[in-house]
Every structure is written in structure tokens, then in C-alpha cells.
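Input record (one chain):
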Amino acid sequence: MGVLLVVALASAQVPDTIEFQYRYTFGSKLGIHPPKILHSKSAKVILGESDRPYGLLLPVAVVTDHSHRVWITDRGTSSLHVFDRTTGAYHEIRKAGDVPLQQPAGLTADAQGRIYLTDSGTGGIYVFDEQGEYDRQLFKRGEKVLESPTAIALSEDGRTIYVADPPKNVIVELNREGEVDGTIKLPTEFAAPAALSVVSNQIYVLENRQHKVEIFSPGGRLRGELKWDGIQSPSAFTYDPAHHRFLVSNPRWTVIQIFNQEGQNLGAFGQGGDGVDQMRDVDFLYVDPEGLVYVVDSHQGKVIVFAEAQRR
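The corresponding structure, as predicted from the sequence alone:
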């Protein structure tokens, strides 16, 4: 029987730290929304007159596509919000085909630019094509493969879809046609998987009760536990494959910390508070291919975007 490894990442002093700067904010209960030109160097925002301009209320997850569109799931409005960073255009999706969205949850994108959406209410997974148009659902009508899917991630070759199903306490492995290839049964004490990342063909799962990140092989074997020095209970994490580093929410200090794969602490950014560029609770993290970091603060109804500062 193999030995279970606990991967404890100890922080280390490194001479070249990484800094991130605030760029802009999507949505807010305070009536904040992005400026028309999102790629502007300024960090200005526009204050709307309505309580909920663009409808953002309880954002859950975010992803970007090849056309620089930003997709945000929103449980509060049972809809999917799409912002176009290039044109400033916005539209709201309330149906996947003819299926009304109920509890839109997880998002991921493949190498071709297709978007995959899970809905905890319908139990479905819906696919949008490269143009952002609805394409298909993975399961046949009436087929109940998943009870209440949430987090979703793709294997590095894009052939396997990993989906968390918290009521069953499992990670389900699907092929691109929606057929079940395998099931990873999570430990009994490992309840409510909240986030997934695939790193070096291993599945990293954040558990929402004990706030632990555990590592599984594609076949479901428990390979170890991932820990970062100074972060006892991470509320969210993600992996940045372009730079081979982890971004981890540290709720104790209300900051996002950056670690490389060797566990060196490369820096931190963010600030607690209720301001446009501040956060209270980090519920989801995402890094897009350009290196922009999206921080979801669900209960403040906003998604804050940061960019790595240019070194001089």
C-alpha cells in the first residue's frame, strides 16, 4: 500500500517578488460596473443609478474566452453575464437553448474557446461555441447523471471533463460527449468540493468545510494534501499554468498570496474592505491566458480584476 504524501509548501524569501495592481471591477450591489473601455490604464469605474446595473447580484465563477469576453455565473439572478472587454458590450443569458438556467455555477473554457457551464439546479452541463452562442448540452433530456454539479475543470489534453457533485461527494470524470468514464469518491470527511484545478495531470480539490486541498490521480487515488505556509484555511485557489504558480486566498489577512510550485511565497495583493477595489470574502479565483486575475466576492456582488505590475 502506497504512502500518502502531505505536500506542505513552506514559504521562502525570494529576491524577486511579484506585485499586482487593481484594474477594474465587474458589477456590485453598490452600482459599480466597468468603464466602456476596459483596457484603459486607469482604474476608474462608473457609478450606476440602479441598484443592480447589468444584473450582477451573487456571482459564483468567472472565465474568459478567445474573444476577450468575460463570462460570469450569477446565482442571485439565475443567469450568465457576458462582458466584451474589446467593445464594452454586455448581454445576459437566462436560457441554455430552451432550458431556463436555475443555479448557474461552474465555468471552464477549452483550447478551442468553447465555454462549459454547470447548473446546480438543472443538473446539466451546457456548451457555448467559439462565437459565444449556445451549442448543446452534454446530457440527453431526462438523463440525470449529476445531482447538483458545481466546480468544473478540463484535463490538460482537453479530453476529460472533471465535475464536482457535492451531494454525492464525488468528482465525476466525463468525456466530451458527456459519458461517464470514472468517478472519484472523496473521503467521508471531505465534504462539499468547492474548487478544482488540474496540475500535471493530477486533480486538486478544495474542500469547503475543512478548507483543505487534496490531490487525486485521474483514477481516483488520493495522492496527498497541499498546504501553503501561513494559510490555515484557504477559501479559494487556482493554478496559473502559464507561470507555474498557485494563487491562494488567505481569509485571515484578506489577501491573495502567490506561491510557486516549490512553495516559495512570491508576494501578496488585495485589501479587505467595501471599496470598489476591496474584498470581504473571496469565493473564487481565476487567471486568464493574459495573466489577469479575477477575484469573485459573491456576497458583495462583484468581480475584481488585478494585473501584474510592470517591472521597471
